[in-house]
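Possible regression after last week's pipeline update?

I re-ran a chain I had predicted before the update to compare outputs. Posting the input and the new output here so someone can diff against the archived version. Not blocking, just want to make sure nothing changed silently.
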Amino acid sequence: MAMQAIQYPTEILSALGKEAEEFEEEARLLLALKYYETGKLSTGLAAQLAGMPRSAFISLLGEHGLSPFGETPDELEESLANARKASHCQ
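New output (post-update):
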């Protein structure tokens, strides 16, 4: 899979104390996470952007406060609470 280069000033590397390869890998991951978070990419496409298997990307979602179900942990807890309330009302 061919990756397109993103242009950035070399001062960025100095400011972050990173080598180019490390910065580019991290930038791809952060971009993939953001596109997934905003619903613009699926887990599969985001994983491709990040350059990793889908299973590894899904594992990283929790570390970044994201859910593989498209909801935040707080939203999942709220949905579960609402489901419990609804089941007790019947």
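Follow-up from reviewer: compared with the archived run. The mean pLDDT is 86. Marking as no regression found.
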